[in-house]
Design a protein that fits this description.
single chain; alpha+beta; five-stranded antiparallel beta sheet; 116 residues; 5 strands
Length: 116
C-alpha cells in the first residue's frame, strides 16, 4: 500500500544516531520495536512486528527463548516491556516482562543502542 510506513528491520551493531532513530520510529509514531537476545547480547529493531525481529535473530543463531521484546519512545525515552513474543516463553505466560533481571538487561541494550 502506498500509505504503509516503511520499516527498517535489522540487527543493530552500533549506537544509532538521532536521524537513524527518527527514521526507525516513523513507522510506529515515535516508538521503536526491538527484540534483544539477552544471552548473545544481540539486538534487532525497526520492524512492524516483534516476531519479525525475533525471526531475524533466530536466523542468526539465537534461541527464541532468549529473545525478549519491548518498545522505546524516542521522544520521552520511556520503555514499554511488552510484546506478544514474551508470552511464548516457558514459565512466562505474560506479554509484559516480569523478570527484573531480564528488564535490567533490556534497559542496558536500550541505553547502549537507542539513546543518542
Amino acid at each position: 500500500m502506498a500509505n504503509e510506513p516503511e520499516f527498517d528491520n535489522r540487527i543493530i551493531e552500533k549506537p544509532l544516531t538521532k536521524d537513524e532513530l527518527e527514521k526507525m520510529a516513523k513507522g510506529h509514531n515515535g516508538t521503536i520495536k526491538l527484540v534483544a537476545d539477552i544471552q548473545r547480547e544481540r539486538v534487532a529493531a525497526g520492524a512492524k512486528w516483534h516476531s519479525g525481529l525475533r525471526n531475524l535473530l533466530v536466523a542468526e543463531g539465537s534461541n527464541p527463548d532468549d529473545c525478549w521484546g519491548a518498545k522505546i519512545d524516542i521522544n520521552s525515552g520511556g520503555i514499554v516491556y511488552e510484546s506478544q513474543i514474551n508470552k511464548e516463553k516457558p514459565q512466562h505466560n505474560a506479554v509484559e516482562i516480569k523478570d527484573d533481571a531480564v528488564r535490567k538487561k533490556m534497559k542496558l541494550f536500550i541505553e547502549r543502542f537507542f539513546v543518542p
